[in-house]
Each structure stands twice: as C-alpha cells, then as structure tokens.
Write a structure and sequence with these properties.
By secondary structure, the protein is α/β, with parallel strands linked by helices. The protein has one domain: 3-Layer(aba) Sandwich (Rossmann fold), CATH 3.40.50.10140. 45% of the residues lie in helices and 20% in strands. It is built from 7 helices and 6 strands, in the order ββααβαβαβαααβ. Strands 1-3-2-4-5-6 form a 6-stranded mixed β-sheet, with helices on both faces. β4 (69-76), α4 and β5 (103-109) form a beta-alpha-beta unit. It is globular. 40% of the residues are buried. Keywords: NAD. InterPro entries: TIR_dom (IPR000157), Toll_tir_struct_dom_sf (IPR035897). Residues 13-162 form the TIR domain. This is TIR domain-containing protein. Pfam families: TIR (PF01582).
C-alpha cells in the first residue's frame, strides 16, 4: 500500500516526488516530517507505507511509481545500505536519471556523503556482509557504483535533530 499527497504539480508525471528511505531508520522521524511538509505544500508525493518487505526485488508498482515521478528524494541514513530493497530502488532511480532526466536529491541524514562514497563505516560493513551473502557480485557492484555516483550530486547534509 502506498500513500500520496494532493494533485501533481508537474504535468505528465503521476508524482512530483518519490521518497526512497530505510523505514527502520527514518520512517517515524525525518521522513514522516518531510512527507507531511510536502503534503501541506500540495506536492504529489509517493511514499511506500509498507513496514515490512520480503525478498530483494522491488515490486512493479514501486518501479512504476519511480518511473512516473519527476524527482526522487533519497534519504541516506546509517543502515540504508543494509536494505536490498532500498538499494534496488536506488538502481531504478539512477536508471531513470540516466534515461529520462529524472532528478535526484540526496539527503544525508546522520551520515556523511564521504562515508557513502568511500563505503566506509556502516556502509563498508553492510557491503562486506552483502559480498559474503550474495554470489551476484555484479549486483553488489551496481549498488556500490550507484551509491558512489549519487553522492556526487548536490544534496543536503543533516547531522542533528532540530
């Protein structure tokens, strides 16, 4: 199930914004506040309100939501890279960025862009586990490359709660 705000401001797109985030890290804090602010501003926003995900591949409905959005806000948080679901959404977002000019706005929530780019700290640990667990090294490399590329885009760093 998904939720969305008012009518779309951008013609030709079903959603103005797609929110990509690790639910356990930010769903009930930063992401819920951001979503509420976007709704108040009448910005049509897709947020996946499912609490639990099984499997690794994103559903066709999520893929369609990404493809029919004008912009994706990616909220990188401490344990973002431990979610195959987030990383697979990220791949879809990056593909739309390359092929359709989809805009990406990264937000670094309590994590530095360099930690993600260099894949150190919790990101390094998450990928070490993934490389042991997944025999699909091509997939892991795609995740690594997508993370590194997105961290080179202009974004916002949030280091403390306000």
């Amino acid at each position: 199930m998904a939720a969305s705000a008012s009518s779309s401001l951008i013609s030709g797109s079903k959603y103005d914004v797609f929110l990509n985030f690790r639910g356990e890290d930010t769903r009930n804090t930063f992401t819920s506040h951001l979503y509420a602010a976007l709704c108040r501003s009448k910005i049509e926003t897709f947020i996946d309100d499912s609490e639990v995900r099984t499997g690794d591949e994103i559903s066709s409905s999520l893929s369609n939501a990404i493809q029919s959005s004008r912009l994706s806000i990616i909220i990188f948080s401490k344990d973002y890279a431990s979610s195959s679901w987030c990383l697979n959404e990220l791949l879809e977002i990056v593909e739309c960025h390359k092929t359709k000019g989809h805009t990406i706005l990264p937000i670094f929530y309590h994590v530095s862009p360099s930690e993600i780019r260099k894949q150190t700290g919790t990101y390094g640990k998450a990928f070490a586990i993934r490389e042991e667990r997944f025999k699909e090294t091509d997939k892991v490399q795609k995740w690594r490359t997508a993370l590194a590329n997105v961290t080179n885009l202009s974004g916002t760093v949030i280091n403390h709660d306000r």
